[in-house]
Every structure is written in structure tokens, then in C-alpha cells.
Amino acid sequence: MSFRINPAVKLLARILGSELLHATWLRLLKYLPLEFESPKDLEVETKMGRLKNPLGLAAGYDKSGKYVKALSKLGFGYIVVGSFTLNPRKGHPKPRIAYREAEQAVVNAMGLPNPGIMKFLKNFKRVEGCKVVASITGNTINEFVECFAALQKVVDAVEVNISCPTNEASTYMKEPKNLREFVEMLKGIKLKPAYIKIPPPTTSEEMNEMCKLVKVWMDCGMDGVTAVNTLLVDAPELALGRGGLSGRPLTRIMLETVREIRKELGEEIEINAVGGIMTGADALEALRAGANTVQIMTAMLFRGPRAPQHILNELVSIKAF
Questions:
Q1: Is 147 annotated in the active site?
Q2: Which of 79, 183, 206, 301 is most exposed by smallest CB count within 10 Å?
């Protein structure tokens, strides 16, 4: 199934810029009649609690955590906010996001702009019926630990982002020695489920290394993995010249990664699949590959704000056969 961006959205993006358009949309969302009640037969039990359905909104859509209540109306089982850093961060120079419509993809080099954990803690309000996960990242192990300790007090789980393709400082956590040091520090303070967000492995060697890294994570008593983050590609349309690719090109890599992690690490690990999930059929394929939940973001651009409704209804229809 192929999707095109709404022509009105493309026009407004050219006039306002993609980022201002997205920010305006988030501010307007609470006024729009878009509420959707999740189908009853999609409930799933996870380490973060019982979800009304397995569909999550991936990190990066609501970078501030201010719009959880409005976004929860769209039907998500859970929402990932952030990523957050210890201190406020402006991100990379603009332009830093571009649509690749022919690929059903987006490329970005946002650079993790966010208000910092203290602003999030001040403004965050919980909502009934929708779990919230905070994504965190940092430049040092101590920063990761501080962010985790602070945010676990108010959310249902924490996602540890070690895989932003345009933030090299956070990727040092991909070294097993560094990750083990971090997790050993985390064990003494951890009160909520912890998921590690990994990059997309594109070779068998990278896949083996990623499975080893996730095994370190799980051996130290953590809970699961979010697979996968965006794929680093050349992006001459962006100021940085490179960026993270999301959307349809990630589907195959995501499915292979989910299958391999499930095969290598068994049933104990909880897997949140993200990358190229655009339809209910995509979601079901990821779940059958071994995922416990699935996450979307690029689908929100290509299918609009009713993307969760469409995907969940499609999932129900497919499961009925």
C-alpha cells in the first residue's frame, strides 16, 4: 500500500517550514474533534502495564511532552515523549528535516532539540488510559543516570536512546563496556521498566554486535529494547549534509532485527518495534516477528492524524481472518 502526503500539508510546509507547521499542528490538536476509542480486543500486557492496544507513538513527535493529553485522544496505547537531555538543547542548524515522498520517508538531523528534564518535569501532566514513556539521552554516563533517576518518578517507563545517528556523543554507549558501566549504576536506582533504543543494523556483523549489546542490557536486569532508530544517510537537502532516515525504507531492517533479537534472547525480553510501520498489516507482521508492541511516527505524516485509527482498525480486520 502506497501513501502520499496531503497536498495541503506540503503547501503549508513550503510556506511555514516543516517544523513550524508541526508545532502549530500540536498546539491546535486539542481543539480538533479527532477522539478515537481503541478496539476492545487489542489489549496487551507489558512490563509498563496493561495497554489498551499495542500501538505507540515513537519518540520525536512530542519533543517537549506538553501534548500527551491531546495525542492520547488519537487512540495510542502509549506515547513516547522526548528525547530529553539533562539541560535544554537547541539541536542542529536548519534546515534539518525534509520529506522524501517517493520513498514514503522522512530524513532529519534535528539534533535532539528539547527543553531539558527540569522543564519537562514542571509541565508534564499524566493522562488516564494512556501510558507514557520518556526517552532520554546524554553526553556522559552520569547524564544518562541523572535523567533516568528524575524522569522515572513521573512516567510509566524510560527509553534509553543510544542511537541518534546525528548525535555522536550519545552513541559511545554502544560500546558494551560503557553500557555495562551505565547499567550497573542504574540497577541501584531503577524503579520503572527500562528499554534501550538501538540503531538499525545493516550487515550481519552489525546485527551480531547489536544482539551482544542487548544481551548485556538484559543480563544486567533491564526490561527490553526498542528496535530500531533512524538510519544514517547522506542528506544534501539538510544543513548538516546527513540525517536519519525513517519510514518505509526501514521496514525490512526492523523486521529482521526483531526476529533476530527474539531468536537470540528468547521470550523474556520485551520488544517495541519501530521503523516503517505504516499499516495494520505492517504492525501485525512486526508482532508476528516477535514484537510485543509497535510504534509509528512517519505514518502520522503520510496518513494524517487518523493514522492510529486506520492502523488499529486494519489490525482488527486482519486478525479476524
A1: no
A2: 206
